[in-house]
């Protein structure tokens, strides 16, 4: 099969296009996918550079990519909810069982890939495979933070720091779908986008110090994770929470062991969440897509042969929306 393979950590030059790579072997609880499109995420090039080798190891050769959309071509004997021919998408995890670290095993930059059945959801009929492949990692990250950590509810006041990025745009839309009042923090050039998606207000972090916002919030989702809890705590309602996807040990200690807050009866807190592959959560996201409450934004699509250009684009930090690999012609 055709695939993008790396045999060492390094720059974009370690990305190799091969056309005779061995097709992956499927376990009993997995399915084999014909990959039609794969998402490109910062996680991919961070793995390629070796930034996560302490958690993921350094076993080569390695196929990158966890966002995938395609068609089921074979199912393991323990799989019941999916059949050959189903159009599906997923945060792909080639591990036979979920890793203790929470990190999924990649493999989407290839003509075929395997993943556990519990990572899959049926692709919404109103989007393409390319659109579907741009969704899982970023949308699951936002959904799991808002639903499982922040426990967002109707009427909550939510502040999203980094609302115009891949995760932030999904967080904004999911929060609005759940009935929240959302204030979006992003550069002014993106205000038209976030306001068009339903944000109740937009703040330009370049011209306004967000620490001096007068409003109080029930949830602050710090997508960019660039400020400690002490900078945000005065913006929280008494039972409010700050959530990020990056652990800040000092923020965690400040909220767990602050005696002043406890004496005053305040329950302000800080927490974090790592994304997990979940077909159940992805199915809920698919429902939002089918009801037109959630949309994705693809800035550019690349072929496998242009993978080096695609990674360089992602690393530039100048991406609005998502980048995808189109494998439909393979």
Nutshell version of this structure?
With 330 residues, the chain is of the alpha/beta class. The protein has helices at 42-49, 53-56, 129-133, 136-149, 166-177, 191-196, 229-232, 249-256, 259-263, 279-290, 307-315, and strands at 3-5, 16-18, 30-40, 67-75, 87-91, 112-116, 120-122, 157-161, 181-185, 201-203, 217-222, 236-244, 269-272, 298-302, 322-326.
Q: How many helices?
A: 11
The overall strand count is: 15
Mean pLDDT: 91
CA-based gyration radius: 20 Å
- CATH homology-level superfamily of the largest domain: Medium-chain alcohol dehydrogenases, catalytic domain
Along the chain, the helix and strand elements come as: EEEHHEEEEHHEHEHEEHEHHEHEHE
- Straight-line N-to-C gap: 9 Å
Helix content class: 25-40%
Strand content: 15-25%
Please, how many domains? Answer: 2
Q: Can you put this structure into words, describing what you see?
A:
This protein is an alpha/beta fold and 330 residues long. It has two domains: 3-135 and 297-326, Quinone Oxidoreductase, Chain A, domain 1 (Alpha-Beta Complex), CATH 3.90.180; 139-272, 3-Layer(aba) Sandwich (Rossmann fold), CATH 3.40.50. It is 26% helix and 25% strand. The strands form three sheets. Strands 3, 4, 5, 6, 7, 14 and 15 form a seven-stranded mixed β-sheet that branches. Strand 11 (217-222), helix 7 and strand 12 (236-244) form a beta-alpha-beta unit. It is globular. Mean pLDDT is 91; it is low at 249-255 and 257-266.
